[in-house]
């Protein structure tokens, strides 16, 4: 079924209009158009304005599962949240999961996503053993031994072919619950120290991006591991029914919310049991939460800088806190060295992710933060970007020429180009 529709990425600041086909079988995939999933990328990576796109979300079957070895083959439209729900009671989980369970396997490969365990487990594609690509009228199965095409596909923005299925090596899970320890981080140095010394499988920091002065960098660090026990009470799902007014996330409201959120954890910390969904995908229970930013949408800035550039990241946070533009959604994590592709985002260091309402002053702020990221030898996450420039991105990704060469060979006519590819001039 093909429909002419207007659609957006998750940030809703950019949109596209064109024909979107939603086949229910890989045999009916249009390989002359870029493939998209649930469009959880925030910017224009899943958009193709004026052209066609193939919605892969109905192509979502589990094709094979070796329970003893923890190896599963699934179609590209399967979501990581659904896989976690099915697999955890059987003792397994996807090895890497991003902050939303609505991410599809195909999208996770195209962005080589990372999760709360990157410091231990690396990126998503490091646990993928085989990918099936459709290139024109040909179907190819590639593995890490394939070489350049594999590295151009992992984190490659869907430019080497339409991903139709993949085989994943899962990670063992003790159960389908999470044992979570929460600690207050009183300031930036304390926050970094807690992240550096965390030895739990999963670690993430929420950071109060409105705090200034001695409290700059305060937040909550959560560490977790899978467990088995009494069922945790899952939070009921909620829905944002309409676009919020522009003042809903104004500076004073965000500051008050952040202060209350910080205070919810006792000074001594606490340990609680949560459902997998509440730990890994906390915002998925608030359907359409992106509408909280109003009809103009929002942008997320996410960068990573090397370990020795933590002070540069602190200065970025100081600029953000003084701006009064940050939302409550701000995350700080330590990353390990693992990445699988030429254009994969992860690098060993610290990553900061913050949402901003789509306003002129926020766009100017993000431009300043991008300049600071380049100066620190870091990079931006293309799954979140909607504002960067081609020269900046190419400078951040030293393997870009290798990716561009492989993508041009795989898709010589440029059928798979998206709005992001054109905006950043990543393929000539």
How does the SSE layout of this entry go?
Layout: E1 2-8, E2 15-21, E3 35-36, E4 53-55, E5 62-66, E6 71-75, H1 80-87, E7 92-93, H2 105-111, H3 118-121, E8 128-135, E9 138-142, H4 148-153, E10 162-169, E11 171-172, E12 177-185, H5 188-197, E13 202-207, E14 219-227, E15 238-239, H6 251-263, E16 270-275, H7 276-280, E17 286-287, E18 298-306, H8 310-323, E19 330-335, E20 349-357, H9 360-375, E21 379-380, H10 390-396, H11 400-410, H12 419-423
Parallel strand pairs: 2-4, 3-4, 15-17
Antiparallel strand pairs: 1-2, 5-6, 6-10, 7-11, 8-9, 8-10, 12-14, 12-16, 13-14, 13-19, 18-20, 18-21, 19-20
Helix pairs in contact: 8-9
Verbal overview:
The structure is a single chain. The chain is of the alpha+beta class and 428 residues long. It contains twelve helices and 21 strands. It has an eight-stranded antiparallel sheet with strand order 16-12-14-13-19-20-18-21. A five-stranded antiparallel sheet has the order 5-6-10-8-9, covered by helices on one side. The chain has a four-stranded mixed sheet with strand order 1-2-4-3, with no helix packed on it. A hairpin with a 4-residue loop joins strand 5 (62-66) and strand 6 (71-75). The mean pLDDT is 96.
């Amino acid at each position: 079924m093909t429909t002419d529709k207007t659609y957006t990425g998750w940030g809703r600041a950019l949109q596209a209009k064109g024909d979107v086909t939603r086949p229910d079988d890989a045999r009916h995939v249009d390989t002359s158009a870029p493939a998209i999933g649930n469009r959880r990328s925030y910017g224009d990576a899943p958009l193709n304005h004026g052209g066609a796109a193939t919605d892969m979300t109905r192509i979502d079957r589990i094709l094979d599962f070796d329970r003893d070895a923890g190896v599963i083959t699934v179609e590209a439209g399967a979501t990581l949240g659904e896989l976690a729900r099915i697999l955890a009671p059987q003792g397994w989980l996807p090895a890497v999961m991003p902050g939303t369970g609505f991410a599809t396997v195909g999208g996770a490969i195209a962005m080589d996503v990372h999760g709360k365990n990157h410091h231990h487990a690396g990126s998503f594609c490091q646990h993928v053993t085989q990918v099936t690509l459709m290139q024109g009228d040909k179907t190819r199965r590639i593995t890490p031994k394939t070489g350049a095409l594999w590295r151009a596909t992992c984190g490659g923005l869907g430019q080497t072919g339409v991903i139709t299925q993949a085989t994943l090596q899962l990670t063992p899970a003790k159960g389908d619950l999470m044992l979570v320890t929460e600690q207050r981080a009183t300031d930036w140095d304390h926050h970094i120290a807690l992240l550096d010394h965390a030895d739990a499988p999963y670690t993430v920091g929420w950071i109060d991006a409105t705090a200034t002065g001695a409290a700059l960098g305060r937040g909550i660090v959560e560490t977790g591991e899978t467990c088995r026990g009494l069922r945790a009470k899952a939070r009921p799902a909620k829905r944002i029914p309409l676009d919020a007014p522009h003042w809903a996330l104004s500076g004073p409201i965000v500051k008050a919310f952040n202060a209350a959120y910080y205070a919810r954890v006792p000074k001594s910390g606490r340990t609680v049991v949560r459902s997998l969904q509440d730990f890994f995908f906390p915002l998925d229970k608030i359907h359409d939460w992106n509408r909280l930013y109003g009809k103009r949408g929002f942008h997320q800035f996410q960068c990573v800088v090397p370990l020795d550039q933590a002070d540069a990241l602190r200065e970025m946070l100081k600029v953000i806190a003084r701006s009064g533009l940050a939302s409550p959604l701000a995350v700080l994590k330590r990353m390990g060295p693992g990445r699988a592709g030429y254009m994969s985002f992860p690098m060993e260091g610290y990553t900061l992710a913050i949402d901003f309402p789509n306003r002129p002053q926020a766009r100017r702020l993000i431009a300043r933060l991008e300049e600071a990221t380049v100066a620190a030898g870091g990079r931006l996450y293309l799954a979140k970007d909607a504002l960067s420039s081609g020269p900046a991105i190419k400078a951040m990704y030293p393997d870009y020429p290798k990716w561009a060469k492989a993508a041009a060979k795989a898709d010589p006519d440029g059928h798979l180009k998206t709005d992001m590819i054109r905006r950043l001039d990543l393929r000539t």
